[in-house]
Amino acid sequence: NAGVTQTPKFQVLKTGQSMTLQCAQDMNHNSMYWYRQDPGMGLRLIYYSASEGTTDKGEVPNGYNVSRLNKREFSLRLESAAPSQTSVYFCASSESVWGVYVNTEAFFGQGTRLTVV
Amino acid sequence: AQKITQTQPGMFVQEKEAVTLDCTYDTSDQSYGLFWYKQPSSGEMIFLIYQGSYDEQNATEGRYSLNFQKARKSANLVISASQLGDSAMYFCAMRSAGGGADGLTFGKGTHLIIQP
After folding, report:
1. Inter-chain touch B33–A103, beta carbons under 8 Å
2. Of A55, A53, A57, A30, which is closest to residue A45 (Cα–Cα)?
3. How are beta strands A10-13 and A112-116 bridged, if at all?
4. Which of A7, A83, A100, B103 is most buried per CB count within 10 Å?
5. Distance, in angstroms, between A103 CA and closest chain B CA?
6. pLDDT tens digits, residue range A76-104?
7. Nearest Cβ partner for B108 among A41, A45, A107
């Protein structure tokens, strides 16, 4: 099983360039997420999508846009990359929270290491 | 707003000893879940264990157990009989059913090093 697949694994951008990080999951999950991980900061939520056609901001959305293309795919776009966006980016998916049940772990992709120079 | 606090940036432990990684959380929601993830040096995020806010018994998964003290808002991870392969970053995280933003809220992590 592939689980959550992210592309690319590594990327170097120049300041001002744009790029799209791709993510696809094959677990039929409704919920998908983009996180960034910076040294000493843990993972922080950028955007999430509770279902196809919906997206919402997380903790650190500035400088990013997202698209939930279909149930499987959730992309993250940097329109004008800045050095502050140098980070490791993780895509994740999980079952939706239903009622009081939150016992659904998130499954993560392998991460994309992005450097903006 | 939810918050996860991990107060141990790094820990050194002798192989075969038990390890306790601390995690405290803050939320006003009644229904929530607490998760622990392991991140080895290769970078992937590996789910270890889950505890629900309504679960009366502490969760266990093999050598991992979660010491859940709801009144103290703590969810410590206990690793019994540590192994060299346990060396990694460990993250405590929380997800709520409270209707706010979905997704996991993570702590800053604990870097665990197991020494032979």
Report:
1. yes
2. A57
3. parallel
4. B103
5. 6
6. 999 999 999 999 999 999 887 655 556 67
7. A41
CA neighbours closer than 13 Å in the CB half-sphere of residue B35: 22
Residue with tokens 């998908």: A32
B111: which chain A residues are within 8 Å (Cβ-Cβ)? none
C-beta atoms of A103 and B97 within 8 A:
no
Q: How far is CA A32 from CA A6, A11, B55, B80, in A?
A: 12, 22, 26, 33
pLDDT at position B2: 87
At B41, which amino acid appears? S
Distance (Å, whole) CA A92 – CA A98: 18
Decide if B23 contacts B3 (C-beta within 8 A): no
How many residues appear in chain B? 116
Three-state SS sequence of chain B = CCEEECCCCEEEEECCCCEEECCEEECCCCCEEEEEEEECCCCCCEEEEEEECCCCCCCEECCEEEEEECCCCEEEEEECCCCHHHCEEEEEEEEECCCCCCCCEECCCEEEEEEC
Compare CB distances from B50 to A35, A42, A103 and report the shortest one's residue.
Answer: A103
Quick: pLDDT tens for B18-69: 999 999 999 988 888 999 999 999 999 999 999 989 888 999 999 999 999 9
What's the token pair of residue B86? 């346990």
- How many interchain CB pairs under 8 A, A with B? 78
